[in-house]
Amino acid sequence: MAQSQEPTLIAIMGPTGSGKTTFINLISKSNLEVGNGLESCTDEVGFATECEIFGKKVQLIDTPGFDDTEKTQADILQEIAGYLKASYEDGRLLTGIVYMHRISDRRMGGIARESFRLFRKTCGDRTMKNVVIATNMWGDVTQQQGEDRERELATKGLFFKDALDHGARMLRHLNTIESAHAIIGELMGNTPEVLKMQHELVDEHKGVADTEAGRTLQSELERQEQRHKKEIEALQNEIKRLLQELQTNSQTHQQEMNDLRYAHDRLNEKVARIEAAKETLQRPPPPPPRRSSWLDKLEQERRQKEAELQEEIKGLKDHLDEDSVAREQQMRELEAELEKLKDDLKSLKQQKDKLEAKLKKELLQHYVVYAKM
Ligand SMILES: Nc1nc2c(ncn2[C@@H]2O[C@H](COP(=O)(O)OP(=O)(O)OP(=O)(O)O)[C@@H](O)[C@H]2O)c(=O)[nH]1
Ligand SMILES: [Mg+2]
């Protein structure tokens, strides 16, 4: 039966995505938002519906992971500090804390270790006996892998050994209500304790930055800042070196460019000469070369001589023409005379033929007379 007393307060902490909210919903039948992507889901302290475990009222408190994808570690520390301070001032102390860790993580890298360190400083050594480190996601590894990792986590100072040495326990959460109850059951009989940070904030009136967790975070931030500054310096040197290289290269490139430009100009000249030669080929042949002046003079003299000769020839021709006219006239007169002679000859011939015919006739008459005699 549930008691009317104040519920036992148990906070669930751990890296983002480690299954804190899922664990809380499983036990308390709450409906707190569970992440389904790569981004962090719970970004502030949340309270689950009160539930009853082993006859006692329990309230589970959900928290954001120190490695939240949106908020900084300082934001998360402030958020958790705010809750711890208020709850201590209200006289409500945590009976236990579950720190979730995925056994499926191949490594517990820098951020995971840093988160656990902040968790340790928040709790302090004295309250480690009220802490259960719950490994989950056993379904994602083989039994052997899970056991090997569990051993490594428990025995290496870098991981959970120190916390275990101070009284923390390590349990497996098999994602069943039974294993979840078993984990909470481990914490139920504990005496509620004031966490280190609560003591610092409330009893010692320190600011968050002055708490051990705050200082740890601050020195970590300074370390990160130094590292980033070194990285920036290295980057600046690299940029400087690249710029110098670029400058040297650009000088080399300038020379190469000049050479190319020179070669380009020479080629252009050659092309222009070829174009000109082609154009020349297209042109009509050039006029004959000019002769020298003495040739011109000779030519002139020759022309003059030719003109004189032409004149002389013309004169002769004219003269010849006059002679021929006279001769033609003479010829025509001779021809007319010849024609007249021909006519005379003809008429003479006719007269002769007549006379001969007359003579013949008279002879014949004489012959007949003679014969009769
Ligand atoms: N396989 C497996 N998956 C789990 C288990 N617990 C949680 N998950 C899954 O892990 C993812 C993250 O779970 P959440 O419960 O949101 O984790 P969270 O620690 O609350 O994350 P934040 O709120 O971001 O800090 C979800 O997809 C869960 O379904 C588990 O025990 N086994
Ligand atoms: Mg969550």
From TrEMBL:
Domain (G): give its ranges: 10-76
- Which residue stretches belong to region Disordered? 277-308
Q: Biased composition, Basic and acidic residues: where in the chain?
A: 293-308
Q: Which InterPro entries does its entry note?
A: GTP-bd, P-loop_NTPase
Q: Which GO terms describe its molecular function?
A: GTP binding
Q: What is this protein called?
A: G domain-containing protein
